[in-house]
Amino acid sequence: MTRTQSLTFRALLFLCGAGVTALAFFLNTAGKSLTSADIFTWLSIGLMYLIFSVPLFFPAVNGANASHKIPSLAILWTGITGFIIASIVVIMLLSSAAVSLSNAITIQAALLFLFAVCVYLGSVASSHSRQIGEEEHKKRQFITGLKARAQVLALSVNDLPEEYEGVRKTIKQTLEEIKYLFPVDELEGFDLEFKIMDALNSISDICDSGTAGTAALLETEARRLQMLIKERKLLRN
After folding, report:
1. Is residue 97 domain-shared with residue 41, that is, in the same domain?
2. What rounded mean pLDDT belongs to the chain?
3. 31 lies in which domain range?
4. Mind giving me the DSSP string for the chain?
5. Which of 217, 123, 230, 137 is nearest to 181 (CA)?
6. pLDDT digits (tens, 9 = 90+) for 96-152
7. Confidence class of residue 66 from pLDDT cuts 50, 70 and 90?
């Protein structure tokens, strides 16, 4: 379902619900003289329906990842449930003359304010969850890039002459360890990953150059790569 189709479907759901609410109002009030308490009751019912319909158009619903929707929708539905239950209690107290109309209106206004706070907190949670999701995606992408670069480099190392057997074995063993790297939250982890990518590129350039002194350069970069990967493997979430 496209975004436009989804929005259209949700709008139709909202209109159908509004129609049912309006029908209930007319069937129950036709030919009757409404008191102030009756008017308050039906306005409260209409408001409860509007509050109940908020998730249909709440930004978090459009998120792609269900795990990122949960915190914001949990806050929102807590506010919705609390508002509806409290509103029903207010209506019952008003109908039994336990509270005055002015007090009922004041309480309803306070409930509406508290619900607005819940909507705000839900929006903040949604934005925060989305930001965290984007950061995690970038980390996974970089790790995937490291592993892909290591696979390409392994092919280049295989083409080295026999006299490079020692350093070639060291590099291949080190490249194997990259397969077992996973994203971490620490900023230090990203810094090390960037340095590992730089070391991989340096080794690749040395392998491609084929100039004199290549063995010594390869050994230096191989030791640097080993050290960086050991440091990176020490980091855990």
Report:
1. yes
2. 83
3. 3-128
4. --HHHHHHHHHHHHHHHHHHHHHHHHHHHTT-PPPHHHHHHHHHHHHHHHHHHHHHH-GGGG-S-HHHHHHHHHHHHHHHHHHHHHHHHHHHHHHTTSS-HHHHHHHHHHHHHHHHHHHHHHHHHHHHHHHHHHHHHHHHHHHHHHHHHHHHHHHHHHTS-GGGHHHHHHHHHHHHHHTT----S-HHHHHHHHHHHHHHHHHHHHHHH--TTHHHHHHHHHHHHHHHHHHHHT---
5. 230
6. 888 899 999 999 999 999 999 988 888 887 777 777 777 777 888 888 888 888 888
7. low
Compute the Cα dihedral for 11, 13, 14, 15 and give only its sign: positive
Q: Is residue 145 part of a domain?
A: no
pTM of the model: 0.61
User: What pLDDT does 68 receive?
Assistant: 61
Q: Which residues does 217 contact at the CB level (< 8 Å), separation at least 6?
A: 206
Q: Residue 56: is its pLDDT beyond 90?
A: no
150, 156, 216 from 159: Cα distances, Å: 15, 5, 17
Tell me, what amino acid is at 87? S
Domain total in the chain: 2
Q: Is there a domain that residue 138 lies in?
A: no
